[in-house]
Write the structure tokens for this entry.
Amino acid sequence: MKQFWNPNSINKNKAMVENLQNYGVITSDEVAKAMESVDRGIFVPDRSSAYVDSPMSIGYNVTISAPHMHAMCLQLLEKNLKPGMRVLDVGSGTGYLTACFAVMVGSEGRAIGVEHIPELVASSVKNIEASVASPLMKEGSLSVHVGDGRQGWAEFGPYDAIHVGAAAPEIPEALIDELKPGGRLVIPVGNIFQDLKVVDKNSDGSVSIKDETSVRYVPLTSREAQLRGE
Ligand code: SAH
């Protein structure tokens, strides 16, 4: 597993962001500002290792991604996360990345999280309430929903940006359908060997797909299969 740093002193969210900038993972001011403002420590079960560059168990056989993966996905989607834009986060888990998205698109935009474990949705709402994104949730520009994210969330689409935080066997058609022309989907695809794919919808509705990097995510699957540990 790739890891950029592993500090053992008292960790700070700002230092985590600075490390990601120093390693060239974060290159945009908007991404840095969003990650600085959303304290990762609020979202993880064990605050003492919240800022270590490593995934962490959040129960239900899944993990919160490592900070460098969150940063990489925010960077890949940055141009589709401008104020006023619409973003869908499939497999929103702790709500951390959904909160970062919401901060970037702001109160004129719309950030939607979809997660199929109801308990994780409930705790993500509490996490978001304790974070800088709380006012956005109160005013309705940020919301998290219980559902099967393989279907996307058509109610608030089409989206400028869709992020999937779990690996799909193939790209779900519904997610491509819910992209705007000019929209971008970032999704890990594969089983044991996975690629982070970047899917751009062109103005004529066709899609261009490229592989960004090899990754290791938990599967995008049914709730039952996940809870059985498959
Ligand atoms: N991005 C989140 C969570 C990553 S783990 C974070 O970093 O905190 C992947 C998440 O996807 C888990 O919470 C898991 O429960 C969820 N998931 C897996 N399959 C899903 C599906 N079909 N629909 C919705 N959520 C799903």
Notes: The mean pLDDT is 95. The helical segments are 13-22, 29-37, 67-77, 96-105, 118-129, 134-139, 173-177, 223-228.
